[in-house]
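Please produce the structure of this protein holding WTA.
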Amino acid sequence: MDRHLDKYKNKAAIIFVPEPESEAPVSLTYRELYVQVNEFAALLRDFCGLKAGDRVTVHMPMVPELPVTMLACARLGVIHSVVFGGFSGEACGMRAADSGSQVLITMDGYYRNGKLLDHKAGADIALNIAKKEGTTVEKVLVWRRHPGQNASATPFVEGRDFWVDEILPRYSGEIVAPVPMDSEAPLFLMYTSGSTGKPKGCQHRTGGYLAYVTGCSKYIQDIHPEDVYWCMADIGWITGHSFIVYGPLALAATSVIYEGVPTYPDAGRVWRIAERLDVNIFHTSPTAIRMLRKSGHDEPTKYKYHFKHMTTVGEPIEPEVWRWYYETVGKGEAVIVDTWWQTENGGFLCSTKPALDPMKPGSAGPGVPGIYPMIYDEMGEEVHAGSGKAGNICIRNPWPGIMQTIWGDRERFVAQYYAKYCKDTNSKRWQDWPYFAADGAVLAVDGYFRILGRVDDVINVAGHRLGTKEIESACLTVPEVAEAAVVPVVDEIKGRVPEVYIVLQPDVQASQEIVDKVNHVIETMIGKIARPRRILVVPDMPKTRSGKLMRRILAALSNNMATGDITTLANPDVVESVRVLVQGKEAVVLQEGPEDLKTFGANE
Ligand code: WTA
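Below is the modeled complex.
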């Protein structure tokens, strides 16, 4: 930000588009962003007493105050941990406790689907949960969505909760010298789901991360200062951190932030925004593309915008969806990059270079410059290009954007990402420690990687990572539930959605009430995004003789796929009774399922 002041101070850094169309877009110039970040940094330092190395949890919607908050933290060397605004207060509280945050920053409310939602309510829940986990959050700073109003019905706690707009005037015009940080000092934490019930805090470094996202934004996204760039992700996920905030702002571009739902109030909204702001680079997920295609197939043709470049990220994209994106959204004029990467990685791993490499619908492409991917089979043998075999995609080399560690859990970091294919655990050579991404992939002769999806217990719902174990842990807090298993089910729009199987305690009768309870607990402990398609009460779970729950078989039943050999189960009869419950009396025609579902639960 500071380095753009000479040349670009009057240029829009951020254009905020409120969800209600009656509210006009708001532009923040680089100068204005600079002023706001400095004032808020002064508040964090002097009112909250925050200093370099402290952690702050941020639970905010898509408003410009969110990047202002993040950049103010960064200015002080304070580590921000942004929790997706759609996560529940409980989920926020768990993350606040894990990071040891003394301050929580939130907002009173925001618009979603035409409604002004009470968002601050989640802060009270978060603080209670954090306290139970042994962390006392001392201050809650609440940004206000509308001047002079209060969108939240929750009462303020005296001495703990503060309106930002009441305190901020004290720091009017203050300039805070940026605290110089070591390039290896942590910049932020981003919690993501893994194979256990506990989300892990991916710790990203200051220098490497920033350099990497800036490089990816420039060379893969083709972002230049004169571009109006719109990434539709939420800043609460890694895509938003890297490609709404840090990357485009480092390059002096104009970054668009849209508050609400892409199809509100109608299927033309996204294209109206693109036309009005003259957006020329567009970035979104296959789920959003599928949704926009379904709700308004020809809508893009009605608007006069021109994209030079478009990105897809977060899930595999079906070739026919890719083609609609190319022909209808991009009007045949825009290059598409399909970028494969993860929260852990800071920036892209595989993608074509725009206008240099040919595009191939459904394939992410080769490693981006500096990244050397390869595929290993389960035995640790390399799977070669053109073999047609799927395997585990790994990265041979370290790179600037890779996370430093899992916050507070170095052992888990090594075990999860590096142990699997390390042949000599005493080695200090990076060549011996390939990065295991936990995605299945196929490598074609042309060197393009096609990503198949997760090989661990993560479900990719609408491009958002949810841990099956997290959902199962939530189900088990309902006293009537004895066992729970969560599996992914193919969904036309969202890619995958969770389906929940539960076994009740002995002597408990199945009822709608219990199902409602389970639904409710998932929503309150995780968030609405984790809402299952169905909750099925079953008499027993398929298990091996050693008592291991076979999620793979349940996933096969839920997706009408072949269950494979079940004769080695301790209770093969259960499979048929569960099948009848899931599919009805008539057996559904078995189909070849998608690759990631065939291997789901392979590690059980
Ligand atoms: C999946 C999002 C196919 C993958 C940036 C990965 C993709 C997980 C793609 C990470 C893509 C991401 N094609 N699958 N272009 N991009 N994925 O951490 O399974 O939210 O492991 O990071 O999303 O999700 P995360």
